[in-house]
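Before relying on records like the one below, remember that each one covers exactly one chain. Contacts with other chains, cofactors or solvent are not represented anywhere in the record.
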Amino acid sequence: MISRPNRKERRRHVHARIRKRLHGTAERPRLAVYRSLKHIYAQVIDDDARRTLAAASTTGAGFEEYGGNVAAASKVGSEIAERALAVGIERVVFDRGGHNFQGRVRALAESVQKAGLLPPSRKRSRRK
């Protein structure tokens, strides 16, 4: 009988595959996203110096709303963009953390993109 893979292990495997290609530098740090059922977390990380430059989450101070929806994710995205700009970061590399680029992860990325930290997304044409 074939056993079904654990969802958490599957996400970690995908994230490890993504991290082979992504690397945050001082000029362009990595924006790492972690999504749980109730909250969403974002960190701007310089992988060369192994330092977190800015962080925001739905568990932080000043956040009273429910953290597990798209509105909360976009609020965290604008907050992390504001904190990154305050530190002097102008561009980031987006690390979706093994999660699919939809829903809350996408809302966070779009709000960071509106602040100017991420380049405009490329539209991919899909076959019909």
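The chain has three helices and four strands.
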